[in-house]
Every structure is written in structure tokens, then in C-alpha cells.
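Q: Can I see a sequence and its folded structure?
A: Here is a first one.
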Amino acid sequence: MVLPERLAHFNRVVTNRVTGPFAGWLPGFGVVVHKGRRSGKEFRTPLNVFRTDEGFVVALTYGPDTDWVKNVLAAGHADLVTRGRKWRVSDPRLMHDGSRRPMPPGVRQFLGLVGVEDFLLLRRE
């Protein structure tokens, strides 16, 4: 079970507007800046992001079929703002891992409770 669509809608309308200005500065958070596949419009999506040896990993709490994930995969790159720094990320790869190994231990347990097993890996340029 990934998080329900109603929660995703609430987060887009309410939570993202509140956390958006701070997400690029707080540990464990970031903002992915990407362009729409059809519109070409720039979008800024707040999310939970964690560093890896090669770049970053994002738990796909709404699954891999969300628009922002499709946009990043189609473009092959995006910008990521985290802890006050802007990174160019590329080579986006979907990863399915039931053990949730790429995530920090505390986050891993929470994601297990909600059934998240899909992740997006982003290579730092």
C-alpha cells in the first residue's frame, strides 16, 4: 500500500505550499525542480531526499506513476535543492527494493509500515 491519492491531493494543495519554502533547507528534505513533459512548465516539488554515495535517493511514497517522477525520467535530469545547495542530478533510475536498503534505518521502518518499496535514484553531476 502506498499513500492514497486523496492524501497526495491534500499535500499538493496544502502541505507543499507550507513546506515548499523550507524544504530546500531542512535535513531530509529537498525540492526537485523539473519541467512538465507536455507543458514545458517548470515545477518545484518538495520531497524527502537522502544522500547516497553517488547522489540522492527519494522514497516514492505515492508510487512511481506520479507526474513529477515521469517528468524527471522523461527529461533524464533535474535540479535538486537540499540543505541550501542546488545540485544538477541526472541518470534517474527507478528501483524496487522491499528491504528499503537505500534509506536511513528510522525512515526504513516508517516506509515499511506504509508499504513503500519503490525509490528514485538520482546521480549527482
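Q: Show me another, different protein.
A: A second, unrelated one:
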Amino acid sequence: MRSDDADDNAQPLSHYVGASLDRYFESLNGSAPPNDLYRMILEQVERPLFERVLAYNQGNQSRTAAMLGINRGTLRKKLRAYNLDQ
């Protein structure tokens, strides 16, 4: 366990998302922002979410779907889309 884990847990996830977005916008440095930011962010968040929750549930898709609050069909579709269905 990292020594700063306690500090990490002190903030809600939205804090880190907001900070990441602030860094992203700063990194644009005057260049044109993307046109499809919403889709881009969802893809960036969904893949690791599915990976980690699936690993936490030791590959059990039923438990993973229940934990995520989605049905198994939706989970399977997302896993295929991110090539996580192997």
C-alpha cells in the first residue's frame, strides 16, 4: 500500500476527473479542442472501469454487470467494443 493512499481516498473521484480535465485543457496550449470530447472521455473512463471491475470479480460477468448496474448483454457489448472479451 502506498503511503499516500489515505490522502487519495480523501477526495471523491470527481475531484480527480476535474483535475485531469484541467490538465488536458492546459495541455491544448491554444490548439483546437476535440470535437467529440464527451465520447472521448467516456471511452477513456469506460475501458479501465470494465477492466478493473472484471478483474475484481475474477472474470465473472454476472457479478461485474451487477456491480456496474448494467445488464449482462450491455456488459458483453462493451467488452467486445474494447476487445476485453477474450
